[in-house]
Every structure is written in structure tokens, then in C-alpha cells.
Amino acid sequence: MGMMKTEDSLDEREVIAAAEKALADIALIREEVSKVIFGQESVVENTLLAVLSGGHALLVGVPGLAKTKLVTTLGEVLGLGANRIQFTPDLMPSDILGSEVMDQDENGRRSFRFVKGPVFAQLLMADEINRASPRTQSALLQSMQEYHVTIAGQRYDLPTPFHVLATQNPLEQEGTYPLPEAQLDRFLLQVDVHYPELAAERQILLETTGISETKPQAVLDAGRLMEIQRLIRQMPVSDKVVDAILDLVRSARPGQGNAATDKNVAWGPGPRAGQAMMLCARARALYEGRLAPSLDDIHALAEPVLEHRMALTFAARAEGMSVRDVIAGLVKQAKG
């Protein structure tokens, strides 16, 4: 079985030592987050996988499910400089990126000075991102893909690492705009946040209504996080797993010979979906204490990687079908 290697891959002993150290750090992160976020293990896992993979995540769920709290907690635990933007219908692109202001010196000479907006942070929390207009949502596009912004022809680099964790309310709710497809594709994962289990909700009631609340501690810093991100990119991926990623992503596109997809899917995932799957599969393997991803990682990540990169035909929606149903069918086929 062939193995894909990166140019700067470490030797096996170094990889094992680095992975064990990273695993210990990840365990500390999980422990700190669990002091504040009760239950929701898959939500915490997928959000962390997106960050460990160096990408952005979109958390979707009704208000009041601790999406914002999870993002602020992760910022504190990972030791990242964080900013929060509350998206509203009247928010302007300059409220995110920053703007030029006129300065005048003591000689009366005037010049423009750029005042940085909240996007200049290592962790940007975009709260209720779909409450802003598409024009404002699109202001994040360049920063999410290219890690810099251009204002009045001048380039300004963003801090490293740079992650956007956005929260979104379900589209059926009042005052929401759908995110543009190009922006959805910039999110590595979509994380669906559901209502908590009974035991977790009981714990929420008991832990959060007293006089004092537990505060999470920083267990990492930005430099260490970037080391783990580099390690994840160096993990080997077998040809079998690469083929499984390609088969799954391509089977979700119309016109590729999959009858169910041709019938139900209007447009499918592009190459970014495969890139996201490759990175997140490595991160998930490390998260679970393994040195290489397996087919199980691909099947587990199918929904969070593909869901926001696909749209159903009108006929499929009229029949009450969801994108999740289609992905579940594709995974079932892949498992044989």
C-alpha cells in the first residue's frame, strides 16, 4: 500500500514523539472546554478539528445552544487573540475590515491612516453571520481564503494563525440571509448544533445558575497551535484513504454516474471539499490517538465536510429530502 508523503515529512520516530506530545495537548484542551461546555461532544470535536486543521468552521443551530460560548471558550483555551463581531442587517464591510481616516499633523498636512477593524485577530467570532446583508458577509471572503485584506489598493496581512468561527441561525428564522455559496465553501466544516441530552441539560442547570461560573484556562498559545497544525499536514495518508475521499466527493456531484445524485443534487462539492476531508481526516486521527487516518474518519466527516457544499434540486426538496439524507446514502454506498 503506497503512502503519500509531504516534502518536509519527519522520520517515523519523530512523528510518534510529536504526535504523543500533541495528543497530550489535545487532551488538555478537551478537559478545559468540558469544564464550561457540557455534553455536545461531537460539536466540540468538529469545531476543534477545523481549528487544528487550520481552517474555519460554521456552527449552525437555534439561539441559546452555547455556540457563542464554545467559540469564546476555545479562544481562551487555545491562547488566541480573539475579536467578536455581532452581525446585524445594518453592519457595513468597513465595520469588519476597518477604514481609512484623515489625519492632520501640526503643519496642517493631511494624510490617510488605516484603522484596523476587528478582522485583525487570530480568532474571529462572526456571531449570527447570516443576519448581515450578502455584501457585508462577502467582506470576509478574501480574508478567509488569502489571509490578508486589501483596502484602497493597499494589502494588510492578518495575524497568524487566523481562524473564523461563525455562528448561524437556521434559515427559516426571521431576518436571515442565506450565505453566498462561495463563502460557504470557505468554511472547512459545518457543525450542526442540536439540543443537549437530558444529562447534559441537567448539568447546565446546576452549574450555570449559581454565584460563580468556572472559567477555562489557556493551555496552549498560538505558536504551539501552529506546530500541531504543521504536524497534522505531515501525517501520512494511505492511497486507500485518498481514493475513498475522491470517490465520496465525486459521487456527490451530478453527472459523475451516481443515479441518486443525478436525480437529487443540483450542484455538488468542488475540490475544496476533498482538501477539507484530507486535512480533517488527519486531524481526527490525531484527535483519537492514531498516526494515520482510516476509512472510518472519511465516513464520519462526510456530513460536516459536504453538507454546506451541496444543494438539492427543487423536486428533491419538494419531496421533503434533505442534503443529510443524500450524504447518508452516499456513505452507505461507500461502505458497500
TrEMBL record:
SUPFAM superfamilies: P-loop containing nucleoside triphosphate hydrolases. One of its GO terms (molecular function) is ATP binding. This is MoxR family ATPase. Transmembrane segments: none annotated. Residues 56-189 form the ATPase AAA-3 domain. InterPro entries: ATPase_AAA-3, CbbQ/NirQ/NorQ/GpvN, ChlI/MoxR_AAA_lid, P-loop_NTPase. It holds the Pfam family AAA_lid_2. Gene3D superfamilies: Magnesium chelatase subunit I, C-Terminal domain (1.10.8.80), P-loop containing nucleotide triphosphate hydrolases (3.40.50.300). It comes from Rhizobium sullae (Rhizobium hedysari). Residues 260-327 form the ChlI/MoxR AAA lid domain. Signal peptide: none annotated.
